[in-house]
Amino acid sequence: MNGTVLIVDDSSADRALLRTILSRAGYAVHEVARGQEAIHQARQLRPHVVILDVNLPDMSGFDVCRAVRSEREISNVPVLMLTVRHDDRDVVAGLDAGADDYVAKDSASEIILGRVKRLIEFRQISGLAMLNQQLAQVGRLLTGIVHEIRGPLSVIRGNAELLKMDAGAEGEPAQWIDSIIRSTRLLQVRLDHLMAAVRDSSGEMRLIDPAAVVREAVDLFVKGMPPGDRAVPVDQECERPLPPVRGDAGRLMQVLLNVLGNARESIARGGQKGRILVRTGISRDDEGSWVTIEVLDQGTGIPEAFLERIFEPFFTTREEGTGYGLYLAAQIVREQSGRITAHNNPDGGATFTIWLPEAEATEGQGQAGGGEISGEAG
């Protein structure tokens, strides 16, 4: 599917013509005849493009365009205004109302398709440029924070090791000192994982134990939840032993934390008790052998119309959502030669599955990284 298009036109003949042109080109097409219906449908569908007629029976197309621009959830949806050829007044009025482009109703099908494709591509490019800028700012902030933590952490660890030398290898003081040293090492590893979340880590690929990464991610997620949210249990079913995969543990943890956070929010939106289950396994298909990490929740699920779109940049169904968490997750998994999928559960809620190729299947493909298997930190 090339995208979702909403046609708003009171002429059934014009809608049928546009539907035929767009459907044959691989677009999912929805249509309405009235302005108020258009605003409602746009909220429900979050289309890639709205094709909007100037004249509607209940309100002008210009007013519909202004209404779309005023709604936060759909304000960034491109609007292609349908005009009558040689009527520049409609063109100017449409652009003033917030339309992104215009096309005459009797234009050739190639022109209509070209305008729709251009609007979709331009919006995606501009969205990704904004995302890159935001991530660069977050990266600079996070780098500064990690730098400030690493200094005192090195002092704590160094002093603890000196105390251990003075206290000897046995006795109760040595046990407390060993605990401090282990904790500083664990914190150092997690700081490295934080840094991996904002850097291009294609050169940091190495053999990792997926079960160990899952356990650490779940532990971090549970400890980081607000006290009121800890009523949502997070269970694990990790098949052992799992074959190693080649990837970046820090980036994979970022994906898991994002998916776990979405699962918790879905349960909270449902207003009922629910749990999260993280399950690992092995799957084989025509493409090879995969290690799978499933995150199942008992939340509200995903609207069927959005299942194919949730990994698009800036696509979100939450009013407070940013729309790039799942997009980044998909990009990170793709960097590690895997994929991420989602489906609704028959008994409610949703399941996100991370597919990672077994290391043996990728060893001969010239991937960077050492041969040491990374286990649990600490």
Structural class: alpha/beta
What's the N-to-C terminus distance? Answer: 46 Å
Uncertain stretches: 364-378
Q: What is the CATH homology-level superfamily of the largest domain?
A: Histidine kinase-like ATPase, C-terminal domain
Query: How many strand units?
Result: 12
Write out the strand line-up for the largest beta sheet, numbering strands in chain order.
2-1-3-4-5
Range of strand content: 15-25%
Task: Describe, in short, the structure shown.
The chain is α/β, with parallel strands linked by helices and 378 residues long. It folds into 3 domains: 3-107, 3-Layer(aba) Sandwich (Rossmann fold), CATH 3.40.50.2300; 130-196; 203-365, Histidine kinase-like ATPase, C-terminal domain (Heat Shock Protein 90, 2-Layer Sandwich).
Structure commentary:
- With 378 residues, this protein is of the alpha/beta class.
- The protein folds into three domains: 105 residues, Rossmann fold; 67 residues; 163 residues, Heat Shock Protein 90.
- Helices cover 47% and strands 19% of the residues.
- It contains nine helices and twelve strands.
- The chain has a five-stranded parallel beta sheet with strand order 2-1-3-4-5, sandwiched between helices. Strands 7-9-10-12-11 form a five-stranded mixed beta sheet, covered by helices on one side. Strands 6-8 form a two-stranded antiparallel sheet.
- Helix 7 packs across helix 8.
- The longest helix has 59 residues.
- The two termini are 46 Å apart.
- The relative contact order is 0.09.
